[in-house]
Amino acid sequence: MSFWIVNTLNGLSLAMVLFVLSAGLTLVFGLMQIINMAHGSFYLLGGYIALSVIQASGSFIAGLVTACVAVMLLGAGIQRLMLQRLHKQELPQSLLTLGLLFIIADVAFWLWGGNAQLVPKPAMLEGAMTILGVGYPVYRVAIIGMGLFVAVLLWLLLERTRVGALVRAGMDDEEMVRAMGINIPLIFTGMFAFGAGLAALGGVLGGPLLGMFPGADFEVALLAFVVVTVGGLGSVRGAFLGSLLVGLVDNFGAAWFPQFSLFTVIVPMVIVLAIRPTGLAGRA
Amino acid sequence: MGPIRMARASGWGEGLLRPMPVAGGAILVVVVLAVAAFLPAYQTELVTQMLIYAIFAMSLDLLVGYTGLPSLGHSAYFGLAAYATALLALKLALPFWLAAALGLACAVIGAFLFNLLALRTARAYYLMITLALSQVLWSLAVSWTDVTGGDNGLPGIARPVLGIRLDGAGVWLVFVALVFAVSTLVMWTLVRSPFGYALRGIRENEERMKALGYDVWRYKLLVSMVAAFFAGVAGILFLSLNSFVGPQALSIALSAQVLLMVLVGAAGTLFGSIFGAVAFVLLQNVVSSWTERWLFVVGAVYVLFALFAPAGALVWVRERLRSSRGRSR
Amino acid sequence: MRSLRSLALAVVLTTCTTCASFAQTSAQPPIKIGILTELSGPLGPSGAGQRDGFLLFLKKNGNRLGGRAVETIIEDTGNDPQTTITKAKKLAESDHVDLLMGPLSSANGAAVRNYLIAQKLPTLLEATVDEIGDGKYIFRTSFSGNADSYLQGYLPGKAGFRKAIVVAPNFNAGQTGADYFERGFVAAGGKVVQRILPRLGTPDYGSVVGQFSAEADVGIIFMAGGDAIRFVKAFADYGKKLPLYGFTATVDETLLPAQGKAALGFTGAGFYFSTIDSPVNRQFVADYQAAYKQNPAWFSAGGYIAAQAIDAALMRTGGKVDDREAMVTALRSVRLVTPAGNFAFDENHNPIQPRYVMQVREVNGVIRPVILGVIPEFKPVAEPPTLPAGLVLPR
Predict the structure, then answer these.
(1) A89, A99, A226 ranked by CB distance to B310: nearest
(2) Which domain CATH number covers C312?
(3) Contacts of C208 in chain A (CB under 8 A)
């Protein structure tokens, strides 16, 4: 019994980090058809900035806010100055974001050194608690809570606000929204910045578990890409489903067949796409 | 004459590219002979790498540039052919040429099987499923140590014998250049054939091609197998270059690198990929000798290309040439 | 006007010094030493440490080894075997280096070994996989993976543990490491009851820790880098149900600040820790701290030892490097006192040097490796070592 509880909770905590990370990726794709190869770089920067701020100020919240705001600004700048010029040109967009991936990786290596580091947990979330008679780390429970909170917030934002309605309309028919006199470029910049901020949030939340080191950007980006593809590109609901699938399959896979854990992320994706070529919640 | 020429040039620019094979071929012969005769081994090695990567990048351009299939798993065929050749030569002691032929067959069969799945998807999903399928092979190469040598790879494959031994760096370069020339010619003929124009039609408007009665799926499958064949050629040449193959021959990193070569050079022009390969080898090897911050420089170059030559170097040059010609008139 | 004159003077002076140095170097050109290691990516900090250790010795020696001026040419393997081979060709055939300090990564070392041997280029490297060595041109200044893994398995067995869980990442070095853990543990009377080989880069080791068999009494662990942090943290998160032994890279000194208290209690043996208490090492740590603002780790010590070995070998050859065979013979016979202790190469050119058995403990608020005992002369072979009398292994 405790095997099931622990592995389910582990799967859920990983899934929620992945969800926060991939929600931004999928929204940006849905609205602008940008496959952002540098999404993992935003995650890495978020984690590193939080790490430095927490070390300097001692406050986890300060680290979290600074990291998200800084990365959002960076995202806004990148969209405004670079990606905007390449609107709807998928191949040069890939080239650009791959270039940014290299640049940010090198800058991070230069600024923070190459040794693997952990983002410190907030002190009040240290230690373990008891769930259904099983001892379980508090911080992981907090991550599950945060992930669900972000999910609800995103749902409210998209479904219940004017901005959300515009974004959804922009996903369906950009020209029509433009014709209505809505400032589409502003929405694009805002959404790209928001997506970058979510990636940074993923870095701050996941940092205490996954650590920050050169190559972490690539590692989590791969997972995020799997999540959004499995879920269906452009769909937040899909990203949520995809995160749950990847998080749980990876954890139970590692528990049951550790020697095959190289395949536990990739093979389910191949199977899902073979059956549903546009992902679980994707539009055809 | 004028308008016809204009129409062609504005289409995909073969108008301007036509003299290129001849001129390019002549330049290549001179360069190869000069390098083979005069340059030290290391420079010879770099030129050899450029030619091998150029074959690899052109094969990907068939998919990305001509057919509109954005593959991020093209290393699968490069690595599959190299591993198969190495294993057949080492474990079954087959002669090199037989092993290489079977290695190429593996790449083509692999492409057939993979694309049964991959071609069900499109666009970004295609990108991700090709990536995933290549990752399956990579994972096998890393974890199945008894067969693949795991992380340490398979060393010790001797260079082949072709009348004379192809051991020396210079002789080997001439051989690679020959393979390169033949591969380029075949791919160039292919993209200018009715088959090639059908591929472009699929890229531009798949639905219309279907309406016109083309079996789009079959065209895609066929071009994938052709692309895999030439990727395999490149993989086997690389295997022989270093007498070594390791998991990185199947890695996402290599797939991304070859995609970068295509994009930097200009997707959909075939010859752009040659430029992309040359630029890549120079960036990778020369910049990293100059500065520890080479990754930054390489990334910045890609960003600049994306911003200022988004359609790729070759298209950029062509546009400059055309506008200067327009002004002089 | 005055400034112009001083400028002219400066030009003349510089020219003269250039002439002088030119005259000097043309008499005996500097020895060229290539440094080819991992300087970017996950192994970047380790490769940089190896390079810095080498350069530190060189600097201390007035940029000379064995009395000869030295020119270093530094190249990054990019942690890619293919690039490693290309760069090796550059160093050997374009730069014409006389000696090479080679990579730290086993994959890169394995890829480049055949080429180096064919070039007859004397190489000192830190990659630990045994097959890389050739007993001729390739020298190792770190440790042999098989022998050290054997030792890490032998120690918990000698401590009295009987049922072990072995955890190592699922790639070459990890798989072989797990095999030799088991051999060592079995030789000391134990039995491996569970063997887990997760993938490198497993995001969540919670599921690995969660399936630890309840009958085991010790864990023998092989991890490194980001995986080591994740594993050690996840293990602590679930309440440290077992004592841990294993490969000391798992709790490397560069990782301890991140692992913190989670690493406490981990026991293992290694050839170098910054906490080794000897005059040579105290000086080395102080110099390294002064130069690079951090503590040296084992890969830095390996780089330093490589420079020491070249220095000593050149003393023997009278500064001659052209005769490769003589150079190799000279290298083979060096005897050194290094920050890690007494050093010599065995017939396979693996290092014979001490092993320090350590446990991660908190001393005056600092979490660091505390040395429990020394195996003064550890032969790099996978067979039961003689443990020092009076060594108390933690249970």
Answers:
(1) A89
(2) 3.40.50.2300
(3) 254-255, 258
Tell which wins on pLDDT, C315 or B8: C315
Distance (Å) from the C-alpha of residue B262 to the closest C-alpha of chain C? 20
| pLDDT higher than 50, residue C231 | yes
pLDDT at B18: 56
CB pair distance less than 8 Å for A102 and B298:
yes
Subunit contact B151:C85, Cβ cutoff 8 A: no
Which are the contacts of B327, defined by CB distance < 8 A and separation ≥ 6?
none
Q: Which residues of A touch B304 (CB under 8 A)?
A: 99
Among A77-86, A166-175, A195-204, B98-107, the range scoring the smallest mean pLDDT is: A166-175
Whole-number Å distance between alpha carbons of B109 and B115: 10
User: Which residues, listed in sequence order, are joined to residue A117 by a DSSP beta bridge?
Assistant: A212
Q: Is C7 a domain residue?
A: no
Do residues C244 and C165 share a domain?
yes
pLDDT in tens, B144-183: 988 998 888 998 787 776 656 666 778 888 889 999 999 9
Instruction: Tell me if C385 is assigned to some domain.
Output: no
What region does C90 belong to: left with phi over 0, alpha with psi -120 to 50, or beta? Answer: alpha
Evaluate whether residue C392 is within a structural domain. no
Considering the domain architecture, whether residues C173 and C250 belong to the same structural domain is answered as yes
Q: CA-CA distance, A42 to A25, in Å (whole number)?
A: 11
Query: Which chain C residues are within 8 Å of B152, Cβ to Cβ?
Result: 106-107, 110-111, 129, 131, 172
Does the structure show a pLDDT above 70 at C2? no
Question: Looking at the complex, does the CB of residue A41 fall below 8 Å from at least one CB of chain C?
Answer: no
Residue B9, pLDDT score? 36
Total count of domains within chain C: 2
C87 shares a domain with C34:
yes
Please compute the mean of the pLDDT values over residues C325-354 and round it to a whole number: 96
Residues of C in contact with B147 (CB under 8 A): none
From A232, which residue of chain B is nearest by alpha-carbon distance? B125
User: Closest residue of B to C48, CA-based?
Assistant: B292
Residues in chain C: 395
Contacts of C155 (CB under 8 A, 6+ apart): C184, C188, C245, C267, C268, C269, C357, C393
Q: Which residues of A touch C40 (CB under 8 A)?
A: 106, 109, 214
- Farthest CA pair distance, chain A: 59
Rounded mean pLDDT of chain C?
90
Question: For an interface test with B, which of C35, C38, C94 has the most B Cβ atoms less than 10 Å from its Cβ?
Answer: C94
Tell me if C172 and B288 make a contact (CB, 8 A cut-off).
no
Domain range annotation of chain B: 25-255
Binning pLDDT at 50, 70 and 90, where does residue A128 land? confident
Select the residue of A95, A222, A233 nearest B263 (Cβ to Cβ).
A95
For residue C159, the enclosing domain spans: 146-270+354-378
Closest CA to A70 of A245, A177, A158, A201: A201
What does the alpha-carbon distance between residue B173 and residue C203 come to, in Å, rounded to a whole number?
44
Q: How far apart are CA B321 and CA B316, in angstroms?
A: 9
Residue C49 lies in a domain: yes
* Helix residue ranges per DSSP H, chain B: 2-11, 14-17, 19-38, 41-61, 75-91, 96-118, 123-143, 145-148, 169-191, 194-204, 206-211, 216-242, 252-265, 271-282, 288-290, 294-308, 313-328
Q: Which residues from A are below 8 Å from C169, CB to CB?
A: none
* Same domain? C233 vs C374: yes
Q: Which chains touch C (3 or more CB pairs under 8 A)?
A: A, B
C156 plus C263 within the same structural domain: yes
CB pairs < 8 Å spanning A and C: 114
Residue located via tokens 């999404």: A39
| Rounded Cα gap, residues B309 and B293, in angstroms | 24
Residues A20-29 have pLDDT tens digits of 999 999 999 9
